[in-house]
């Protein structure tokens, strides 16, 4: 085909990517908004290595070319990610749009990316030179800027097999379907033997990069709920400092207020 | 190099470039003008088609993506028995006004029922949530789909 | 239910549902060229130079110099240039068109054109405008006295924003010269408006112009005047190229640069004496944008509705439509009425609160009834069904109880319910129908005993083909299948007026009924017969005088009561609509499904207007909400519980008792929604759209 390659294996795709000037095309729902006239696409949808959802001892592995529909329908996927995926756009977009595209577009509004931040997911990036595994927070460099090299593909997303069932998730959009996040918030909190063993929060659509601050969340870790209450004020104040919404169509004040409200509600819903 | 796919049950070959929009090629090269263009941004659903059994916005699909796929537009779907059921149910509640959203809406209806022959009202609404209709307020369309679910027992 | 109200398969159903209906963009013609407009990038500037790239063979530029007639679009006042002359007055003003055989090449050329502007300071804010396009004032009673004697005067200003029609099919037309004539076809509501505009622009006689409406993907007013502008541009291009030229707007172009609902600011001064409302002094300001288009008539309707459905003995109403360097506003379903109905409903609510009454109690006290005098000293000649509508709404929603119950709430989720009551004046404002339009409609019986309807009204989705055919078939006593109507073609149909103002069915449908009655009497088997009917004003009408706004502005009114129930999430400041109920009187429904479709669709548009549809320009006068991702309209999941009910209240002078239906359902949604928000938030609100950001401000004010 002219202006395109349809790869059927990862190896083939990486070879093309190393040699030619091509744009990886997964679901196309970002690329096709305003496609470059002379773009040559490398179609990823038929690369089976990028379409799997499997579990091993360490990780849940989600192929980057899995569509949101596939993610919602898969039994292995944790509820928090399903819930976020189900609120993306509408069915027809979810049938095309992929989780890999949601990450590689580098947007802080990505609804699945938010969950991957909150769960400290890792990304498996592969090129014909080799591969590397990068924590998602290190993948994002700035507004629409990522650490992806031009000869690399995001092949898999690796989610630690920790307990994700006690989660908090809220997407705030302009309406109940087909809405880009104005603010989004995801959090996980696990308590074992009376103590908080992990607390992971992430704020989407407020800044150039999704906000994930393990250093602040660490304030609560190792504490009982009661002890957490003591540092609550300090914890909230730290986020109050950390969240500086960038200007946008929707006012920074509004988005900030929603972030703080949701953070408080998350704590309260966990008895903090 | 050409792009091969199955369009409405027929093998076709397109000379389009891989980065062209399926929507444009369906309308121009294949004269499928029942596929409507309302935005070219994935936001309205007027361009909906079914690829390999799934509803998609054809404006969001590059031609290279459809290589070896099965594509169904309203032009193919209207020949089916299922269409006849939806046709009657849409007519019975006058769910078609300006009609610009309608071909996409009908294909969305098909995908709702194919997945779930007895959808609840909420499931129907969710199933058409990517198809904007400015005329009807959606009630009649939702009704039409639930009537089709009843009348078309066994077809889906 | 009357017999005629039983629903039938719509005439246009089959072709639309199976995808075979041809909209303008679906038409191809031999040698057809594609045109794209170069729009001004500046809000106010002098064009000092236009640098064109070299054009490939077969491509051409069309601009003001190619206008062979008058470089003005004939709308009401001829001030809109076909193509910009030396200056541009808003971002988006058409400067020239690039035309050629390949759409992509046309686009490439367009991007290479450089326009050198000498920028001027634009006037964007209507409050700072120094050009008043239209200024109307009227009075009733003695407002000065009411104010002087008042023991309280309430003053409040209400604001409404833009609303974009957001029809699913964007604007588009094809023009082609043929045998020395010019044909323009495409998406439109008013073929004869386009007809006179094109003749004027290319400088020919009316007989040399043909306008054909194609299947049209929605209009809502947006295809009332705008197609006249586009038609002139495309016709000029086709004449220059001597080939067919097609122009289809893309969505962003359509949203940014075509007409929309006028933003407004309305200030109400209400005099109270001894606990009674004694007068309203109302000042209305509409942002016209850069040209006048339909602002005069939009403003007139807005002013006539300014006191709502209330009996106010002393009234002074003034309004201005002013110029700004923004996109010209125009017609949108409701036509000026949604703006003032919002204001009056809210002020009534706020006054009630001050008096310690529930807003419904106060409203009921002043509600008009049959025989009362209108704002313009005309008369409500017919039954006003508001009391039974209120009762029905209360049955459906438990409004009165909920309203009280929701007054004091704490907790994350807070509910509210609001109610509005309103009318829509049916047909043209004032004497337009009698003096200007003078509608003519025909029916022709063919030798095979089928009957064709000949009228210039366009079915743009509202079901006119079906309802017209039902009226004629039923009157003649023949089967519906034997009556047909094509899309209007000015070569074939008389001028029965535009498809606007909720007039088509009531007025033209009435002419058709009369024509059919006549044909029935004169029916001759196997012969061709043509019957023509002309508009005659009903004799009960008190003639309207525009000079002092006196008399019957409308022969009759359609009525409605809406209630909306909401739930606000105080953490996110977002609002869920729990239910929306509307009781509507549009006379006898000529087809129940069709009327329900109008009510539900219009009501949802109104809810969008109230809650989520936000559009504004920035400091440079650029509208940035120009796509469906930035200009949000309701989807199928946003108002799942929307209930419309019809209250039958036949209009003795309408066909089968029908009156205007198209616009009514949009008019009262905004005040019902905002009243509900007030109920939930415990605050007085005064603007639409009322967005989550607005809610958050209130919540923060309340919480801290
Ligand atoms: C109408 C509409 C509604 C939307 N709503 C939402 C929403 O609610 N929430 C949301 O988060 N997003 C939304 N989006 C955005 C978009 O759908 C998502 O970001 C989606 O996940 C993108 O995935 P894709 O596969 O379609 O990306 P593509 O367009 O295929 O790719 C996006 C970018 O990533 C690169 N890329 C893709 N895959 C890889 C890979 N494996 N390796 C390397 N590079 C890669 C591409 O080169 C491109 O630069 C919406 C989009 C539309 C059109
Ligand atoms: S045209 Fe494809 S979604 Fe609107
Ligand atoms: S019928 Fe007009 S947009 Fe749906």
From TrEMBL, chain A:
Coiled coil: none
All copies of domain FAD-binding PCMH-type, residue ranges: 1-164
Gene Ontology molecular function terms on file: FAD binding; oxidoreductase activity
Record InterPro entries: CO_DH_flav_C, CO_DH_flav_C_dom_sf, Diverse_Substr_Oxidored, FAD-bd_PCMH, FAD-bd_PCMH-like_sf, FAD-bd_PCMH_sub2, Mopterin_DH_FAD-bd
Lineage: superkingdom: Bacteria
Sorted UniProt keywords: Flavoprotein, Oxidoreductase
Pfam entry (one): FAD_binding_5
Protein name as it appears in the record: Molybdopterin dehydrogenase FAD-binding protein
UniProtKB/TrEMBL annotation, chain B:
Listed Gene3D superfamilies: 3.10.20.30, [2Fe-2S]-binding domain
Keyword Iron-sulfur: yes
Pfam families: Fer2, Fer2_2
Record-linked InterPro entries: 2Fe-2S-bd (IPR002888), 2Fe-2S-bd_dom_sf (IPR036884), 2Fe-2S_ferredoxin-like_sf (IPR036010), 2Fe-2S_ferredoxin-type (IPR001041), 2Fe2S_fd_BS (IPR006058), Beta-grasp_dom_sf (IPR012675), Diverse_Oxidoreductases (IPR051452)
Record GO terms (molecular function): 2 iron, 2 sulfur cluster binding; metal ion binding; oxidoreductase activity
Stretches assigned to coiled coil: none
Protein name per its UniProtKB record: (2Fe-2S)-binding domain-containing protein
Domain 2Fe-2S ferredoxin-type as annotated: residue spans: 1-77
Entry superkingdom: Bacteria
Keyword Repressor (UniProt): no
Secretion signal span: none
Alphabetical list of CDD domains matching this protein: fer2 (cd00207)
Key words, A-Z: 2Fe-2S, Iron, Iron-sulfur, Metal-binding, Oxidoreductase
UniProtKB/TrEMBL annotation, chain C:
UniProt KW Oxidoreductase keyword: yes
Domain Aldehyde oxidase/xanthine dehydrogenase a/b hammerhead: start-end pairs: 18-121
Transmembrane segments: none
InterPro entries: Ald_Oxase/Xan_DH_a/b, Ald_Oxase/Xan_DH_a/b_sf, Ald_Oxase/xanthine_DH-like, AldOxase/xan_DH_MoCoBD1, AldOxase/xan_DH_MoCoBD2, AldOxase/xan_DH_Mopterin-bd_sf
EC number: 1.17.1.4
Cofactors demanded by this protein: Mo-molybdopterin cytosine dinucleotide
One Pfam assignment: Ald_Xan_dh_C
Keyword Oxidoreductase (UniProt): yes
GO MF entry, a single one: xanthine dehydrogenase activity
Domain of life, per lineage: Bacteria
Cross-referenced SMART domains: Ald_Xan_dh_C (SM01008)
UniProtKB keywords: Molybdenum, Oxidoreductase
Signal sequence annotation: none
Record-given protein name: Xanthine dehydrogenase
């Amino acid at each position: 085909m002219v202006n395109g390659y349809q790869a059927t294996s990862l190896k083939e795709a990486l070879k093309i990517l190393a040699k030619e000037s091509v744009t990886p095309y997964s679901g196309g729902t970002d690329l096709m908004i305003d496609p470059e006239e002379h773009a040559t696409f490398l179609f990823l949808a038929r690369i089976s290595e990028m379409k799997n959802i499997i579990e091993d001892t360490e990780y849940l592995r989600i192929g980057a070319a899995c569509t949101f529909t596939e993610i919602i329908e898969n039994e292995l996927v944790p509820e928090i990610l399903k819930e976020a995926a189900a609120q993306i756009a509408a069915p027809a977009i979810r049938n095309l749009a992929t989780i890999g595209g949601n990450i590689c577009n580098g947007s802080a509004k990505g609804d699945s990316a938010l969950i991957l931040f909150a769960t400290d997911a890792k990304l498996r990036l592969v090129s014909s030179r080799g591969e590397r595994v990068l924590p998602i927070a290190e993948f994002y460099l700035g507004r629409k800027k990522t650490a992806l090299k031009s000869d690399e593909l995001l092949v898999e997303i690796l989610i630690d097999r920790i307990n994700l069932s006690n989660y908090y998730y809220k997407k705030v959009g302009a309406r109940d379907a087909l809405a880009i996040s104005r603010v989004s918030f995801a959090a996980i909190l696990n308590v074992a033997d009376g103590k908080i063993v992990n607390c992971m929060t992430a704020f989407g659509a407020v800044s150039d990069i999704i906000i994930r601050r393990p250093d602040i969340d660490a304030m609560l870790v190792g504490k009982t709920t009661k002890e957490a209450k003591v540092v609550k004020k300090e914890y909230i104040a730290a986020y109050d400092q950390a969240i500086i919404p960038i200007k946008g169509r929707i006012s920074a004040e509004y988005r900030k207020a929603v972030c703080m409200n949701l953070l408080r509600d998350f704590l309260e819903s966990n008895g903090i | 190099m050409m792009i091969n796919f199955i369009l409405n049950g027929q093998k076709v070959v397109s000379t389009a470039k891989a980065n062209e929009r399926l929507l444009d090629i369906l309308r121009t090269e294949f004269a499928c003008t029942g596929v409507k263009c309302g935005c070219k941004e994935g936001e309205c659903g007027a361009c909906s088609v079914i690829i390999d059994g799934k509803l998609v916005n054809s404006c969001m699909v590059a031609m290279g993506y459809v290589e070896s796929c099965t594509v169904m537009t309203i032009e193919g779907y209207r020949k089916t028995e299922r269409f006849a059921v939806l046709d009657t149910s849409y007519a019975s509640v006058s769910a078609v006004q300006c009609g610009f959203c309608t071909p996409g809406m009908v294909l969305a209806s098909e995908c709702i029922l194919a997945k779930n022959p007895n959808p609840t009202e909420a499931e129907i609404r969710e199933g058409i949530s990517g198809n904007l209709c400015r005329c009807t307020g959606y009630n009649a369309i939702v009704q039409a789909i639930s009537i089709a679910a009843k009348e078309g027992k066994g077809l889906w | 239910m009357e017999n005629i109200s039983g629903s039938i398969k719509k005439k246009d159903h089959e072709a639309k549902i199976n995808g075979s209906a041809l909209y303008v963009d679906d038409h191809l013609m031999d040698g057809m060229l594609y045109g794209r407009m170069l729009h001004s990038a500046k809000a106010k500037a002098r064009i000092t130079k236009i640098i064109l790239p070299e054009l490939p063979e077969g491509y051409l530029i069309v601009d003001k110099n190619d206008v062979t007639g008058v470089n003005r679009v004939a709308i009401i006042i001829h001030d809109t240039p076909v193509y910009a002359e030396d200056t541009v007055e808003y971002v988006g003003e058409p400067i020239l068109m690039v035309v050629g055989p390949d759409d992509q090449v046309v686009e490439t050329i367009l991007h290479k054109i450089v326009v050198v502007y000498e920028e001027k300071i634009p006037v964007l804010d209507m409050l700072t405008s120094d050009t008043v396009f239209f200024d109307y004032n009227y009075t009733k009673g003695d407002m000065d006295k009411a104010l002087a004697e008042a023991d309280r005067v309430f003053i409040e200003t209400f604001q409404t924003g833009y609303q974009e029609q957001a029809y699913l099919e964007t604007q588009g037309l094809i023009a082609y010269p043929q045998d020395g004539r010019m044909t323009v076809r495409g998406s439109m509501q008013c073929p004869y408006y386009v007809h006179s505009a094109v003749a004027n622009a290319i400088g020919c006689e009316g007989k040399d112009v043909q306008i054909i409406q194609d299947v049209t993907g929605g209009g809502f007013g947006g295809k009332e005047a705008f197609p006249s502008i586009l038609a002139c541009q495309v016709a000029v291009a086709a004449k220059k190229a001597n080939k067919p030229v097609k122009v289809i707007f893309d969505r962003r172009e359509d949203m940014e640069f075509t007409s929309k609902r006028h933003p407004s600011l309305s200030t109400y001064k209400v005099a109270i004496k001894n606990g009674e409302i004694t007068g309203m002094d109302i000042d209305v300001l509409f942002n016209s944008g850069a040209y006048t288009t339909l602002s005069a008539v939009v403003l007139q309707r807005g002013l006539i509705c300014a006191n709502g459905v209330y009996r106010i003995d002393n009234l002074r109403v003034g309004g201005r439509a002013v110029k700004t360097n923004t996109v010209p506003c125009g017609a949108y379903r409701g036509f000026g009425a949604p703006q003032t109905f919002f204001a009056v409903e809210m002020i009534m609510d706020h006054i009630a609160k001050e008096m310690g009454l529930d807003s419904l109690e106060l409203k009921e006290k002043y509600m008009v009834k049959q025989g009362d005098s209108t704002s313009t000293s005309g008369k409500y000649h017919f039954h006003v069904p508001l009391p039974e509508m209120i009762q029905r709404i209360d049955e459906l929603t438990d409004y009165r109880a909920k309203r009280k119950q929701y007054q004091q709430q704490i907790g994350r989720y807070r509910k509210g319910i609001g109610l509005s009551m309103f009318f829509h004046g049916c047909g043209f404002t004032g004497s337009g129908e009698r003096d200007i339009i003078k509608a003519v409609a025909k029916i022709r019986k063919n030798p095979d005993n089928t009957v064709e309807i000949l009228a210039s009204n366009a079915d743009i989705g509202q079901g006119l083909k079906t309802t017209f055919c039902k009226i004629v078939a039923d009157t003649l006593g023949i089967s519906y299948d034997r009556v047909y109507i094509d899309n209007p073609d000015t070569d074939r149909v008389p001028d029965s007026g535009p498809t606007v103002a909720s007039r088509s069915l009531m007025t033209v449908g009435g002419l058709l009924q009369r024509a059919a009655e006549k044909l029935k009497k004169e029916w001759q088997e196997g012969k061709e017969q043509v019957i023509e009917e002309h508009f005659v004003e009903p004799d009960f009408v008190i003639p309207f005088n525009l000079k002092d706004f006196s008399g019957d502005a409308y022969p009759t009114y359609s009525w409605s009561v809406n209630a909306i129930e909401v739930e606000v999430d105080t953490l996110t400041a977002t609002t869920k609509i729990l239910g929306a109920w509307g009781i509507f009187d549009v006379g006898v429904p000529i087809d129940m499904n069709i009327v329900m479709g109008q009510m539900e669709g219009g009501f949802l548009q109104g809810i969008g207007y109230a809650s989520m549809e936000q559009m504004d320009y920035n400091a440079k006068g650029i509208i940035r909400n120009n796509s469906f991702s930035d200009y949000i309209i309701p989807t199928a999941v946003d108002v799942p519980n929307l209930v419309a009910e019809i209250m039958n209240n036949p209009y003795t002078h309408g066909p089968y008792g029908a009156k205007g239906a198209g616009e009514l359902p949009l008019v009262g949604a905004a005040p019902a929604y905002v009243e509900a928000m007030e109920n939930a938030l415990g605050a007085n609100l005064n603007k639409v759209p009322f967005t989550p950001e607005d809610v958050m401000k209130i919540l923060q004010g309340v919480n801290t």
